[in-house]
């Protein structure tokens, strides 16, 4: 269907009656591939005040450092004056970029500030993905990444996963098989720390093997790490980006691209996140961001910079709360969930993953759960190639202990009704 003025079949008008083009036909093919976020749509039906929702991955609002944020705004305005409210460089506020760069010992020139991690994923998709490119994703993977990449019309291949995240032996087999067919994936997208949606963490051994395999086969890696600092058990592990730096020996030869955010550690509403990458990627990322929004809000970046001294204590506060809430949710699942229902036990982050027996459809089950005054996110939207009908994602980050107890009791009852 062409974007053109539809033919008139009625009488000829004697006055100026604008008809205009067929608006639906004017929508680009890329835009036609866009879909609404399944999570956002689910949140709409769970907004009843008496429904306890574990669907949204929302940071706990009562933990936001309101007084410190207020003071940071006043300090930034006093320190920078009108410049805090002016247009700024696309790359981002230099003191903030320098602080971020220092974490990995790289130049600030290799850091791009973006307006939330979601924008970073969208811009990376724009500059890296051509129509038909093959993108490797976990099964399941972050729904927002699929939404960001889809308008650029990639093909997907799913990497097998288990309780330890990406199965790197299976990945090696997958890459070798593709190479034998003369095909090379453009990029691999992964969340190695407390993955959204499963809460799983990739081991050090698997991280090293993944970086080595992708380097061997010439595959770019996007490491999405919004939750990495929210570890509440186990030992901290090096990022894929750090392993890539070690392997490459040069920041501008590192094939791993790193994305993170202040949304989960400080506050999400300021929408400050960043990408670290080699110069060829950063150069195009800057150009893409110029076309998107010129730059991330100046005042917000200055406020985040003023909040950096508070960040370690704020992270400890958030970790302590999530440790308690996650442990309580697991204990209530142990008590109320029927046999045959399994779930992950995260070492950090905000999510865990529930798997019901085969044959249970969590999409169909959701209205019954809402009737029982509890809500979750069905697992199907997190699979790029379909599947996962019997799975669901749960978030414990913004729920009180009382809500968790009541919600797990209601959800356990919902499961027993479904299982008969």
Automatic annotation (TrEMBL):
Say if the entry is tagged with keyword Transferase. yes
The Aminotransferase class I/classII large domain extends over 63-411
The keyword Transferase belongs to this UniProt entry's keyword annotation: yes
Gene Ontology biological process terms in this record: alpha-amino acid metabolic process
| Pfam families xref list | Aminotran_1_2 (PF00155)
Q: Which GO terms describe its molecular function?
A: pyridoxal phosphate binding; transaminase activity
- InterPro entries per UniProt: Aminotransferase_I/II_large (IPR004839), Class-I_PLP-dep_aminotransf (IPR050859), PyrdxlP-dep_Trfase (IPR015424), PyrdxlP-dep_Trfase_major (IPR015421), PyrdxlP-dep_Trfase_small (IPR015422)
Its needed co-factors are: pyridoxal 5'-phosphate
Which keywords annotate this record? Aminotransferase, Pyridoxal phosphate, Transferase
State the PANTHER family in the record.
AMINOTRANSFERASE (PTHR42790), KYNURENINE_ALPHA-AMINOADIPATE AMINOTRANSFERASE, MITOCHONDRIAL (PTHR42790:SF19)
Q: Which family does it belong to?
A: Belongs to the class-I pyridoxal-phosphate-dependent aminotransferase family.
Q: Partners and quaternary state?
A: Homodimer.
The name of this protein is Aminotransferase, class I, putative
């Amino acid at each position: 269907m062409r974007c053109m003025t539809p033919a008139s079949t009625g009488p000829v008008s004697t006055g100026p009656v604008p008809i205009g083009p067929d608006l639906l036909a004017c929508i680009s093919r890329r835009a036609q591939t866009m879909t609404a976020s399944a999570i956002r749509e689910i949140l709409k039906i769970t907004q009843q005040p008496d429904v306890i929702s574990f669907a949204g991955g929302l940071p706990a609002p009562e933990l936001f450092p309101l007084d410190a944020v207020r003071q940071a705004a006043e300090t930034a305005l006093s320190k920078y004056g009108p410049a805090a409210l002016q247009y700024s460089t696309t790359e981002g506020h230099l003191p903030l970029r320098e602080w971020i760069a220092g974490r990995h010992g790289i130049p600030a020139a290799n850091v791009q500030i973006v307006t939330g991690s979601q924008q970073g994923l969208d811009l990376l998709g724009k500059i890296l993905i051509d129509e038909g490119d093959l993108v490797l994703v976990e099964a399941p993977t972050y729904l927002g990444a699929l939404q960001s990449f889809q308008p650029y019309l990639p093909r997907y291949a799913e990497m097998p996963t288990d309780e330890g995240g990406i199965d790197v032996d299976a990945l090696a087999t997958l890459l070798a098989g593709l190479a034998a067919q003369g095909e090379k994936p453009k990029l691999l997208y992964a969340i190695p720390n407390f993955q959204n949606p499963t809460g799983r963490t990739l081991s050090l051994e698997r991280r090293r093997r993944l970086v080595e395999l992708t380097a061997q086969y010439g595959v770019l890696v996007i490491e999405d790490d919004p939750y990495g600092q929210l570890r509440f058990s186990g030992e901290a592990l090096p990022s894929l980006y750090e392993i890539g730096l070690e392997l490459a020996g040069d920041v501008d030869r590192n094939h791993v691209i790193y994305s993170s955010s202040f949304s989960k550690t400080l506050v999400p509403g300021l929408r400050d996140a960043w990408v670290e990458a080699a110069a060829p990627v950063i150069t195009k990322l800057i150009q893409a961001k110029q076309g998107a929004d010129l730059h991330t809000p100046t005042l917000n970046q200055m406020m985040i910079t003023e909040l950096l001294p508070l960040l370690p204590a704020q992270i400890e506060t958030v970790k302590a709360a999530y440790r308690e809430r996650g442990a309580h949710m697991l204990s209530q699942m142990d008590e109320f969930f029927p046999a045959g229902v399994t779930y992950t036990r995260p070492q950090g982050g905000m999510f865990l993953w529930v798997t019901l027996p085969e044959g249970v459809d969590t999409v169909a089950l959701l209205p019954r759960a809402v009737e029982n005054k509890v809500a979750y996110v069905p697992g199907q939207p997190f699979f790029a190639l379909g599947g996962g009908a019997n799975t669901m994602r749960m978030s414990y980050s913004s729920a009180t202990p009382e809500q968790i107890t009541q919600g797990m009791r209601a959800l356990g009852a919902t499961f027993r009704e479904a299982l008969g």
